[in-house]
Amino acid sequence: MKYIFITISILILAVSPFFGQIEIRFAHITEITSIDYKLFWDLRLPRVFVAFFTGALLGLSGLIFQSLFRNPMSTPFTLGVASGATLGTAFAIVFGLVYFIEVFGFLGALLTITILFTLTSRLKAYESSSLLLVGIALSFFYSAALMILFYMSDETQSYEIVRFTMGSLDVVGFENVFPVMVASLLLLILTLNYKKQIKLLLTSYDNAFLKGIEVRKINTVLLISVSIAIGIAVSITGPIGFVGLIVPHILKTIYKKSADKLLLPTFFYSGIFLVLCDLISRNIGSASNIPIGVVTSLLGGPFFIYLLVRRKKA
Amino acid sequence: MLQVENFSNNILTNINFHLHDNENLIILGSNGAGKSTLAKVLCGISYSDAVELFSQMLHLLNAKERAELINYIPPKLEIFDEYISLREYLELSELYSQLNINHVLELLDLQTLQHKPCITLSSGEQQLTMLASSLLHNAKLTIFDEPTANLDPQKTLKVYKILASDSIGSRIIITHDLNLAYKLGYKVLYMSDGKIEFFDENKKFFEDSNLDKFFGDSLKRIDNYFVVNL
Description:
The complex is a heterodimer.
Chain A: H1 2-15, H2 35-68, H3 81-94, H4 101-122, H5 128-152, H6 155-166, H7 177-193, H8 195-203, H9 205-210, H10 215-237, H11 243-255, H12 263-284, H13 292-313
Helix pairs in contact in A: 1-12, 2-7, 2-10, 2-11, 2-12, 3-4, 3-5, 3-6, 3-10, 4-5, 4-10, 7-10, 11-12, 11-13, 12-13
Chain B: E1 2-7, E2 15-19, E3 25-29, H1 35-43, E4 51-53, E5 56-57, H2 63-69, E6 70-73, H3 86-93, H4 101-107, H5 123-137, E7 141-145, H6 153-163, E8 170-174, H7 178-184, E9 187-192, E10 195-200, H8 202-205, H9 208-215, E11 219-222, E12 225-228
Parallel strand pairs in B: 3-8, 3-9, 6-7, 7-8
Antiparallel strand pairs in B: 1-2, 1-4, 4-5, 9-10, 11-12
C-alpha cells in the first residue's frame, strides 16, 4: 500500500511539469533557443518545485501547531499567523516596500505569534480552545486592517493585493524557489532533531517536564521557527489554506501513528498534495488558472469530511 | 535529602518538614487535603523556591538535573496522543536505569500489551504502565500518587512488592490504603486542610489514639489489618 502511494506520488511529480495550458513538445526541452525550453525550465519546473516545498512547509507547520497546541484545529492559518503574514505583505505592497516583502511577511507572522504567546502565558498552560478563539479574533482584526490597506491603495496595488490573497504559485525562474526550499528543509531538519521532545510533549506537559524537557523553550523554538517559515512561504505564494489543516489529519488516519513519526510523511505528501492541486488548477480552466486555494479547499474539504465520517463508523 | 521550609500557597499552609537520606515517606490524608498539591510542589510542576533536594535548591536546577533527582507519578495516566503505544511510552521514560524495557515489561506482566496504544489500556493497566515508566526513569526520589488505586488484589500485591523493594530509589507514596502504609512501615505524614497534622514514625501513627483521632469510627483494626467499618 505504502509503495503504491509513493509510486503514484513520484508519477505526479514527474508528469506535473509537462501539463498546462500550453503543450510542451517533449523533444524540444533541451533546445536552449526553443520556447519549450523556456517554458519548461523557467516556468513549469520552478512552479512544481515551489508547489512541492510550499506544500511541504504548510503541512509540516500544521502538524507542529496541531501537536504543540493540542488541538486538531490549530494551524498557522486558523491561529492567524498566516493572516499576519498576509497583512505584512500587503503593507509592503501599499507602501512601496516591494524589496522587503519577505521581511514584512515574516514580521507579520512574528507579531502574531508574539501576541499569541503573550496571551497564552496569561492563560493556563496553552489552553487550546481560548487560544483558538484568540486566533480567530486576530484573523478578523487582520482582515479589517487589510480592508483599510485596500482603501489606501491605488488600483494596481489593490489588484496586486487581491491576487496575492488568493494565493498563487506563479513564479518565474528558480530565484523564488530557493527561499521556500531552504525554509522548508531547515524546518524539516529542526523538527526531526526535536523528534523525541515533540513526542514527550504529546504525552503530557507534566510528563515532558518531569522527563527533563524544557517545555517552554522547546515550544518557543518550534513555534518561532514555524512562524518564520510561514512568513517566508506566504510572502512568496500568498496564503494557501487547508493544506496544513487536512494533510496531517489524513495521514494520521491512514498511518495511525503519533506526530513524531509523521514528520517526514507529512512533509512529502503535503508537497505532493499541493503539486497535484496545482496540476489540476492549471489544466481545468480554459482561459486562466483557477486560484490554487480554491482547488486545495475543493479537493481537501470533502475528502477530509469523508475520512472523519468513516473513522466515526469504525 | 528533602527539605521544605515554610511553604504556603492557596491550598497549603505552612508546610515544613524534612527527610534524611535513605528515608522513605507515606503521605496520608482525606480527599482534598492537599496531598497531590504538595507532591506537585515537591517535584517542581508547581513552582516554588522552598524545596531543597539532595542539598540543592530545586528551582535552581536545570531540567536534566531535576529529572535525575525527582520524578512524580500521577494518579492517572495523562496522554494526549491517541497512537503512542505502551512500549513507546516506556521508551520515552528510559533515563537513569540499568533495567531495560523488556525486563520491566516482564516484571509487571505487560508484554502482551506493549504494542497497544496507551489510551486504550484499562485504568489498572495504565497504572502499571506508569509504575514501569518510573522504574525506567529511576530518579533518586520518586513520588507515587495513589499507585494502587485502580488495581485488583493480585496486582496490588505485585505493586506492593515493587514499592517495598530495592529496585527504586527513595520514594514518597501518597495513598489511602492504610494496609499498604502500615506494611511498608515508612515514616508517615498526615495532612488535613492543607496543613501537616502528623509527621513521625510509622508505629506512632498506627497507635489507636491517632487512628481514632484521624479516622474516628470509620475504621476498624483487625489483627493489624485495617478495614473500613461498613
